[in-house]
């Protein structure tokens, strides 16, 4: 029989060691080695679809696979905002436990109902950086101009007294250089690749009490999945498992790499204490969690389920 | 663009003439709308600059608003640009050949253009309806509903198709190629 | 069907559609849509609205209509006339001075506008009739305006540099600065040729006797000084906007928005254009040019998507990368390719369609992407004054329909050769493009 080709698209640089690209490439290699007439053709760096168009393309079967920050689709499925909700994950160990929780079952139900399927889980940590004052407790963001990372984070930061400027992540560097922004929050990988360490004095690394976590799974379109035979599905599932294990091993290393690079460039590196984290969580509950619960049908249930994980 | 829109053979009587005149009026009106949208986009950028740099306050809606208004303006302005011959085409070959073959080539070209515009209208309305039914928003800080941003594309593409038909009837669908 | 065969079929279909006179945007769009439907099924039609909207709706792209509006505010006001007069004050009496003033005015206007046709139109409306009145050969009159206008996309701001920056994820501010020195270099080359052309034509036969000309100059001085005073505020605003952009204080879209607003406000204040009619003309001109360009960009984006979707882009890029020829031979091939593409397509379309293929090759061969942007732009400037699609030629035809196309083409040809010389100089001295950005940004 003729070989089945799956087209996998993502927004990250190809062949340059980005962990999400590596995950997809690893799956391509595994599937090839399984010898089941299946091939994954990778389109990195938005060379096929723009980052924000991938979800729509995936659920309609236009695109077979993607590595996607799930929050990008929150305009169509507001539940997905929970996957970029401040303080909901906290650290990598807890992210692992979260993957097998009722919370993720609820999220994956939405993904499945929309017409897609998760092949590999990945939670990326991130932090804060500032040129004004180290961001630890909520009162440290007061009066700082911060970049908008997503509605939930913005609402929490604004409630704590920061002013918010919306712009694409690619503009963070310029905005910090010119003083439009005092601080920014994004993933560990982006902090390094956008060279933010050249513009800031203090980095808040994820550590044990991180506010910033984002879910970026590898997904397959249900339509594409259904077209595969059992052997191929099995090979793909196993490849996804390998990719997930690979990521679990790399996740903490990504944070360490960010810390190293920032320290090399003379940036002070701190992390949040238990008390800082509790204080932020209190603000989040009054602001972004509350809004989420009001606007999303099962919003409160989602948050309760996430917080219930030990 | 160089253009001399000489609507010479305008069939000014009957239903067909009325249709052409009506389309010209509508395309002119949407061009005014498009100008207003373009200006609104510019003002939103200026507002953002003022609020961010002078007042140091949060700016959440301006970027998206500018993208929506200006992208909308481009599609709403398209029928007017077709009417005034502004979409660049190369008519060197048909002009060199002349005669009935020239007419046939230009008619075929217009039909291809019309086909594209109809396909775009179909896709655009489908997208608007999906966004409307799904209650899709932009998923950003401002998070407005998506369908109003898409509506100008659907309207613009539809009017573009109707204007194309008017141009084909007018019998000089080779506008914008007056070189 | 293998990617190469599909690619050839797509290009042939595109050429046929363009040859029978289909507007470029619709030809690109229908070929891409047709290829997608044949390759991936009718579903592509269903998603077409989303694909098309997604190709246009970005905060970076909206800089283009705003920069065009800024240029239209200047071009549709009497600024072009005043700029022209101010330069005539200094250069009016030099042999060939008027033609040189025209190129100078085009260069300055290029700094006020992001587009080449707009630059040709703004200066040519006054310049061509004036040159012909004073006895310049038709070819020189048409050629120097057509060529001078092409500087619109090299001297910042530049619509094509914005498109290049978006397509290749390079810094638009840095691209703008990279174009400045090469822009001045080309302007000087154009002026040098103009002097030679005037000498060859036996000088310009000024119909008015010397005494009369002197009297007229005296009378004009006062008016020309006033013209200079009216132009200065525009130059100040635009310089400020560009410095904000270079300094990284503003993004291109912010700079474009502020520039459009301020230039519109200046046109209203300086030239008292508050009535509906002149404002309508500004908005009409801005809309016509930006809609034309943006639809071509959207269609070219879909074309690029179709090629990538069918793995044509990746196959071709891989094949070129495997050629293993000398990097300068490679650069020569790329230049010929761009030149030919420029004959048939407007600059923005060429950039959107080819940048994703060319940039990886350029980087692999160790060329500077900002230097390459300048070389690419000059290639596309040549395309602006060559048939069959030469946007600036259309403008000249509109301004002076009675100049024979043959004269326009022959008059423009030496300027195209000046640009080829410019590319050669850039290859030998890459610093022409890289020196200023390195100085200002590192
Ligand atoms: Na320019
Ligand atoms: Na050309």
TrEMBL record, chain B:
Pfam families xrefs: DctQ
Domain of life: Bacteria
Oligomer status and interactors: The complex comprises the extracytoplasmic solute receptor protein and the two transmembrane proteins.
Keyword line: Cell inner membrane, Cell membrane, Membrane, Transmembrane, Transmembrane helix, Transport
Designated name of the protein: TRAP transporter small permease protein
Membrane spanning residue stretches: 31-55, 67-93, 105-126, 146-166
Organism: Modicisalibacter luteus
Similarity field: Belongs to the TRAP transporter small permease family.
Record's signal peptide: none
Matches recorded under InterPro entries: DctQ (IPR055348), TRAP_DctQ (IPR007387)
Subcellular location: Cell inner membrane
TrEMBL record, chain C:
Claim: Transmembrane helix is one of the keywords in the record: yes
Keyword Membrane recorded: yes
UniProt topology in membrane: Multi-pass membrane protein
One Pfam assignment: DctM
Family: Belongs to the TRAP transporter large permease family.
Oligomer and partners: The complex comprises the extracytoplasmic solute receptor protein and the two transmembrane proteins.
Protein name per the record: TRAP transporter large permease protein
Gene source species: Modicisalibacter luteus
């Amino acid at each position: 029989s003729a070989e089945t080709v799956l087209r996998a698209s993502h927004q990250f640089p190809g062949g340059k060691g980005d962990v999400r690209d590596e995950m997809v490439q690893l799956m391509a290699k595994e599937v090839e080695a399984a010898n089941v007439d299946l091939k994954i053709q990778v389109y990195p760096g938005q060379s096929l679809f723009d980052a924000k168009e991938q979800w729509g393309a995936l659920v309609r079967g236009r695109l077979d696979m993607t590595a996607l920050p799930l929050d990008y689709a929150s305009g169509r499925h507001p539940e997905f905002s929970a996957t970029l909700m401040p303080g909901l994950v906290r650290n990598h160990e807890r992210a692992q436990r979260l993957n097998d929780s009722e919370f993720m079952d609820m999220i994956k139900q939405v993904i499945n109902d929309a017409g897609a399927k998760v092949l590999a889980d990945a939670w990326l940590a991130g932090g804060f950086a500032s040129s004004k004052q180290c961001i630890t407790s909520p009162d440290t963001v007061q009066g700082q101009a911060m970049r908008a990372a997503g509605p939930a984070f913005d609402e929490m930061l604004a409630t704590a007294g920061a002013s918010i400027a919306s712009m694409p992540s690619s503009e963070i560097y310029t905005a910090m250089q010119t003083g439009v922004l005092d601080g920014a929050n994004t993933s560990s990988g982006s902090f390094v690749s956008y060279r933010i360490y050249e513009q800031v004095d203090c980095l808040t690394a994820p550590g044990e009490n991180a506010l910033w976590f984002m879910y970026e799974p590898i997904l397959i379109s249900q339509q594409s999945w259904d077209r595969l035979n059992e052997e191929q599905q099995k090979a793909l599932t196993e490849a996804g498992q390998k990719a997930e294990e690979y990521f679990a091993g790399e996740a903490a290393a990504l944070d360490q790499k960010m810390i190293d690079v920032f320290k090399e460039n003379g940036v002070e590196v701190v992390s949040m204490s238990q008390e800082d984290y509790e204080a932020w969580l209190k603000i989040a509950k009054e602001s972004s969690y509350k809004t989420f619960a009001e606007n999303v049908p099962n919003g409160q249930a989602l948050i309760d389920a996430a917080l219930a994980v030990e | 663009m160089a253009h001399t829109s000489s609507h010479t053979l305008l069939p000014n009587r009957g239903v067909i003439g009325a249709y052409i005149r009506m389309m010209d009026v509508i395309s002119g009106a949407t061009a005014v709308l498009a100008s207003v949208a373009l200006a609104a986009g510019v003002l939103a950028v200026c507002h953002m600059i003022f609020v961010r740099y002078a007042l140091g306050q949060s700016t959440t809606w301006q970027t998206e608003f500018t993208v929506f208004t200006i992208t909308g303006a481009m599609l709403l302005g398209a029928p007017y640009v077709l009417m005034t011959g502004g979409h660049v085409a190369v008519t060197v070959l048909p002009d060199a050949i002349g005669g009935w073959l020239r007419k046939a080539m230009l008619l075929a070209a217009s039909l291809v253009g019309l086909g594209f515009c109809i396909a775009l209208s179909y896709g655009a309305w489908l997208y608007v309806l999906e966004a409307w039914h799904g209650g899709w928003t932009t998923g950003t800080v401002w998070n407005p509903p998506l369908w109003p941003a898409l509506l100008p594309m659907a309207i613009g593409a539809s009017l573009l198709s109707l204007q194309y038909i008017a141009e084909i009837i007018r019998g000089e669908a080779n506008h914008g190629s007056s070189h | 069907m293998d990617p190469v065969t599909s690619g050839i079929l797509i290009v042939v279909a595109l050429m046929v559609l363009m040859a029978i006179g289909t507007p470029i945007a619709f030809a690109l769009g229908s070929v891409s849509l047709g290829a997608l439907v044949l390759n991936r099924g009718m579903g592509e039609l269903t998603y077409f609205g989303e694909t098309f909207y997604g190709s246009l709706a970005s905060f970076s792209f909206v800089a283009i209509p705003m920069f065009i509006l800024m240029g239209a505010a200047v071009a549709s006001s009497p600024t072009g006339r005043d700029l022209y007069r101010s330069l005539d004050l200094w250069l009016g009496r030099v042999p060939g001075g008027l033609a040189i003033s025209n190129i100078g005015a085009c260069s300055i206007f290029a700094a006020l506008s992001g587009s080449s046709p707009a630059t040709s139109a703004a200066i040519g409306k006054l310049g061509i009739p004036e040159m012909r009145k004073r006895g310049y050969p038709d070819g020189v009159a048409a050629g120097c305006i057509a060529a001078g206008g092409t500087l619109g996309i090299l001297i910042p701001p530049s619509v094509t540099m914005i498109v290049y920056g978006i397509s290749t994820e390079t810094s638009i501010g840095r691209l703008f600065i990279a174009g400045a020195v090469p822009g001045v270099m080309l302007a000087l080359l154009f002026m040098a040729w103009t002097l030679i052309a005037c000498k060859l034509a036996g000088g310009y036969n000024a119909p008015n006797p010397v005494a009369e000309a002197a009297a007229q100059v005296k009378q004009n001085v006062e008016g020309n000084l006033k013209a200079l005073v009216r132009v200065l505020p525009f130059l100040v605003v635009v310089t400020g906007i560009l410095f904000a952009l270079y300094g990284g204080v503003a993004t291109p879209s912010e700079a474009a928005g502020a520039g459009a607003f301020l230039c519109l406000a200046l046109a209203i204040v300086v030239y008292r254009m508050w009535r509906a009619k002149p404002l309508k003309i500004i908005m009409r001109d801005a809309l016509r040019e930006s809609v034309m360009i943006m639809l071509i960009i959207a269609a070219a984006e879909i074309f690029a998507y179709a090629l990538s979707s069918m793995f044509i882009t990746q196959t071709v890029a891989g094949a070129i990368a495997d050629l293993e020829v000398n990097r300068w031979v490679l650069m020569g091939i790329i230049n010929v390719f761009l030149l030919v593409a420029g004959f048939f397509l407007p600059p923005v379309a060429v950039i959107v369609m080819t940048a994703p293929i060319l940039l990886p090759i350029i980087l692999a061969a160790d060329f500077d992407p900002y230097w390459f942007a300048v070389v690419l732009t000059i290639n596309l400037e040549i395309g602006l004054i060559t048939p069959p699609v030469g946007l600036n030629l259309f403008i000249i035809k509109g301004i002076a329909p009675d100049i024979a196309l043959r004269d326009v083409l022959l008059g423009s040809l030496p300027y195209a050769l000046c640009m080829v010389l410019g590319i050669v100089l850039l290859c030998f001295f890459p610093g022409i493009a890289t020196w200023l950005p390195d100085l200002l940004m590192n």
